[in-house]
Amino acid sequence: MARLLITGVSGLLGINLALEAIHRHQVIGVDRGRLKSTPFQVLQADLFHRDTIDSILESTRPEWLVNCAALANLEECEQYPERARLLNTEMPGELAKICAQRRIHLVHISTDAVFDGKKKDSYTEEDEPHPLGTYSQTKLNGERAVQSANSEAIIARVNFYGWSLNGMRSLGELFVNNLSVGKHMNGFTDVIFCPMFVNHTAQILLSMLEKGLSGLYHVVGPQPMSKYQFGIEIARKFGLSESQINPKSVLLSELTVRRAHNLQLSTHKLSTDLGYELPRFSTGLDEFYTQYQQGYPQKIRSYQQ
pTM to 2 decimals? Predict the structure, then answer.
């Protein structure tokens, strides 16, 4: 059993990682006051200051740290670039330095959005990123800050879906929640990505820590699809109306920040180093649906302050 500290524990990945990890490890979450009555310890703190980070690590003495904290809303990053820089670049760099000094194994969560999507096939970890906006640029700078300060850290580029505190943090739950009440949604036919069920993401991150891996990895699903196809698969699984999903080009959307067209990432390095094949999309979708049937979304929301 390891002592695991999770920053950004109220986020989509953070909360699901904590709930996965409590079965095998001692979990401590760091949050800004949005959680209550969780089955794991939560510390309320703002990580913008090095002294705060030092104090938390001194008091908790974790063996592992997973940094899920980020400003992830693309439009918000464009509106508040300095805040994006502090949270997505500066803070991860400070965490990495202190973890290296204290010999804490760090996982830093990055994003598939560091690529511009112009490549015709899958991106590997060796491909040079080309960010399209403030979010992706600050996340890439965060990767580089972590890598520079702590060569033993894991940097995980991710894309996941699942159930969150407010029901609006993942594309999967947005499709379910909107289609369930008769609302129409756009499904982009020209944005290809590799979604992974967030609980699978959490399990894989724990496996990477347990195996002592380090370096850059693509931690995404092994099956690429368009966001339109993703919505259709969700609708079919949940018995919802596919006709409520409008096939649309992202170029004709009202989004103000450019999105990459192809975010197909190779997972060959990850599956090779783990020694097993990553879960298929259908497996994750089945578990996503089972959680829905078992009241997991309500359970997650009950932890919200």
Answer: 0.95
